[in-house]
């Protein structure tokens, strides 16, 4: 199971059955501002087995114009958490594409949902600075099939763009530890930040490099017309941790 398929699995928790911005007003919508994943070793070990899993979702917290959702994938028999994801959604005007504050009715509803539950904070992600001339890069062209209902690149596709760049970098020997087939390595954690949008036909540049202090941590930037539109970090398990698979 890769990050894209895991993200789509979390989508099946019926995220949009929570009352959302724009449910009754087509002039309003939402923008996925960022996500943070944590994946257990057990998920990779169990992924090909015929086991029952449970998917749960709850409101983690909300702010002036955003909400944070917390998704959990767990073993239905034991209740053990196999993977989790925080997703930050920002309410936006479809005309201006700018954030819109939550109205009192929305705030009251989210307060009820949080009543009696602990507020959870999504991990913060900040991309470190780097000399981009020293990074590995590849170019991709956005396809129509990769768009969402707003006619922008679906948020999960940026995970695929990053994975494709990582695959090319690993195959070329660019990384010091992650070499060969990148699919042989398992993602432990990932964080993303969505900054801008992309449309069909646009040529994107994907940049990657490894953390100098930990070669199992990779960073990614997606650039559209000299503007950063996506940042990400993938942390991989070291191969020795999967020597029994």
Q: Strand order, biggest sheet?
A: 2-3-4-1-6-9-8-7-5
Topology as a string of helices (H) and strands (E): HEHEEEHEHEEEE
Distance between the termini: 15 Å
Overall geometry = globular
Largest sheet: 9 strands, antiparallel
- Please, how many helices? 4
- Class of secondary structure makeup: alpha+beta
Describe this protein's structure:
With 245 residues, this protein is an alpha+beta fold. It is built from 4 helices and 9 strands; from the N terminus they run αβαβββαβαββββ. The protein has helices at 3-11, 41-46, 104-114, 157-172; strands at 28-39, 53-62, 66-75, 81-93, 136-141, 187-194, 203-211, 214-224, 227-236. The protein has a 9-stranded antiparallel beta sheet with strand order 2-3-4-1-6-9-8-7-5. A hairpin with a 5-residue loop joins β3 (66-75) and β4. The chain is globular and about 55 Å long. The model has no long low-confidence stretch (mean pLDDT 89).
Layout of secondary structure:
Layout: H1 3-11, E1 28-39, H2 41-46, E2 53-62, E3 66-75, E4 81-93, H3 104-114, E5 136-141, H4 157-172, E6 187-194, E7 203-211, E8 214-224, E9 227-236
Antiparallel strand pairs: 1-4, 1-6, 2-3, 3-4, 5-7, 6-9, 7-8, 8-9
Looking at this protein, list some descriptive labels:
245 residues; alpha+beta; 9 strands
Quick summary of this structure?
This protein has helices spanning 3-11, 41-46, 104-114, 157-172; strands spanning 28-39, 53-62, 66-75, 81-93, 136-141, 187-194, 203-211, 214-224, 227-236. It has 245 residues and is of the alpha+beta class. Strand 3 and strand 4 (81-93) form a beta hairpin.
């Amino acid at each position: 199971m890769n990050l894209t398929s895991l993200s789509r699995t979390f989508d099946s928790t019926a995220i949009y059955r929570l009352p959302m911005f724009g449910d009754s007003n087509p002039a309003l919508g939402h923008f996925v501002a960022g996500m943070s994943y944590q994946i257990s070793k057990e998920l990779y070990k169990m992924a090909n087995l015929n086991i029952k899993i449970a998917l749960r979702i709850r409101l983690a917290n909300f702010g002036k114009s955003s909400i944070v959702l917390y998704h959990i994938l767990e073993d239905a028999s034991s209740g053990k958490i196999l993977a989790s994801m925080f997703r930050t959604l920002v309410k936006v005007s479809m005309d201006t594409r700018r954030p819109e504050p939550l109205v009192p009715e929305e705030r009251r509803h989210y307060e009820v949902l949080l009543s009696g539950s602990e507020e959870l904070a999504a991990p913060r992600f900040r991309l470190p600075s780097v000399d981009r001339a020293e990074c590995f890069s590849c170019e991709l062209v956005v396809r129509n099939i990769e768009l969402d209902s707003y006619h922008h690149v679906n948020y999960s596709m940026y995970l695929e763009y990053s994975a494709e760049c990582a695959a090319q970098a690993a195959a070329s020997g660019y990384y010091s530890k992650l070499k060969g087939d990148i699919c042989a390595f398992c993602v432990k954690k990932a964080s993303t930040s969505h900054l801008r949008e992309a449309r069909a036909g646009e040529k994107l540049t994907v940049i990657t490099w490894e953390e100098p202090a930990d070669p199992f941590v990779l960073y990614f930037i997606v650039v559209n017309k000299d503007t950063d539109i996506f940042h990400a970090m993938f942390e991989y398990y070291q191969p020795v941790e999967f020597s029994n698979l």
